[in-house]
Design brief:
heterodimer, A: alpha+beta, 5-stranded antiparallel β-sheet, 7 helices, 10 strands, B: alpha+beta, 3-stranded antiparallel β-sheet, two-stranded antiparallel ribbon
């Protein structure tokens, strides 16, 4: 049941525009904003989740209190998975997958502290061993990009994973753009035995958890902090409950 | 002005103890994210201890309550001038942050230190 806000409420809030349409019910809002319960399983598995759980355990205790000696260097870390539109091509003995990472809009309020890509440097697909690396995709001038520090072995996870710093690449090419930003990375693999190139059924084999992006961010001003006090879904919930309470009271 | 605080100073000891027991203070409280219905997207921690402030604000706001001048004056206004002006309320004074690991609707996983999540002390204001 949805009611119009009471006259008293509108009079108390002169900046609130009068509404002619019903207020969206709380549950409907949550279904739009928050992940659905069935979404949990596909994402809450595998190396990306394992990486973030280890990061969490190093940075906070079991009650969520940030640790004094945390070395994370930022107040926020976002793990971004590649989108599903993967293009593939073969260049000599190299199998190349082009991965797109949607960085979203409205990042003006955040300072990019560091950006890294975490990827498998060894793959075993169809009994074939592959050595892999990642390069930022740059149109026309592939040698001009600067990827910051080189790759380093990732101590957090298994020995088949590597973390590469791409902060400079993102800062120089993407961060200050206002439109939707897409980070494009080439994930390149070569069979350790070159003769296996033709037999390798590589078109169907790449799963989405071979690489993920980590953005280490800080809020840059107080309004940003205010806007990000709670995840948007939680804010929606609290706002909804608050308006429900006021409607109950006015009834 | 002294006259207005005199009754509290000279109150019987049992009455004094009772008012101290109900005085504005921090109370521990823990809730699970499951109880809040947010456990399908908050990965860690499983429990949240926001705590809360409860109790009456004394007519004499002593130093340890960290009340601003405004609260002291409002107390006096309530006491001496206009009782429709409410006494100060018992509310959180200091907060500490809390780190949350959650899954976003687009599949990203987010670690964030959220400010102001856990009440650490209380004040009258």
């Amino acid at each position: 049941e949805v009611e119009q806000p009471s006259i008293t409420f509108l009079a108390d809030s002169p900046t609130l525009p009068p509404t002619t349409t019903p207020v969206m019910p709380l549950v409907e809002k949550l279904l739009e904003e928050a992940p659905r319960k069935e979404q949990r399983k596909p994402y809450l598995q595998g190396p990306p989740l394992q990486f973030m759980l280890e990061l969490y355990q190093r940075s906070a205790d079991s009650d969520g209190h940030p640790r004094e000696n945390r070395t994370i260097g930022a107040t926020m870390v976002r793990l971004v998975m590649p989108s599903t539109d993967v293009s593939r091509h073969l260049r000599g003995s190299w199998h190349i997958w082009t991965l797109n990472f949607l960085l979203g809009r409205n990042w003006v309020a955040y300072q990019l502290v560091r950006a890294t890509v975490v990827y498998r440097h060894q793959l075993y697909l169809a009994h074939i061993s592959l050595s892999c690396h990642v390069e930022p995709w740059v149109p026309k001038s592939p040698k001009n990009y600067s990827s910051g520090r080189g790759p380093s072995k990732l101590s957090l996870m298994s020995q088949t994973w590597t973390e590469m710093d791409i902060t400079q690449h993102i800062q120089q090419r993407l961060w200050n753009r206002k439109e939707q930003r897409v980070l494009r990375l080439c994930f390149m693999c070569q069979p350790q035995n070159i003769s296996e190139v033709l037999e390798f059924p590589w078109h169907d084999t790449l799963s989405m958890d071979v690489a993920f992006l980590l953005l280490y961010l800080n809020d840059t001003h107080k309004t940003a902090q205010k806007a990000e006090l709670l995840p948007s879904g939680l804010e929606e919930l609290l706002e909804g409950e608050s308006s429900l309470a006021s409607r109950r009271k006015s009834r | 002005q002294i006259h207005s605080v005199e009754p509290e100073v000279t109150a019987p000891s049992w009455e004094h103890d009772e008012s101290e027991k109900n005085q504005c203070s921090l109370h521990p409280y823990t809730v699970s994210f499951r109880q809040l219905g947010w456990d399908h997207w908050i990965i860690a921690p499983h429990h949240y201890t926001p705590n809360y402030c409860k109790g009456t604000c004394p007519r004499v706001l002593h130093y340890s309550l960290n009340s601003p001048n405004h609260a002291i004056i409002q107390n006096l206004v309530n006491e001496l001038v206009n009782q429709s002006i409410p006494q100060p309320s018992c509310v959180p004074y200091k907060y500490v942050p809390m780190s949350i690991l959650l899954m976003e609707a687009n599949g990203s996983i987010l670690y964030k230190e959220h400010e102001g999540m856990v009440a650490q002390s209380c004040t009258c204001r």
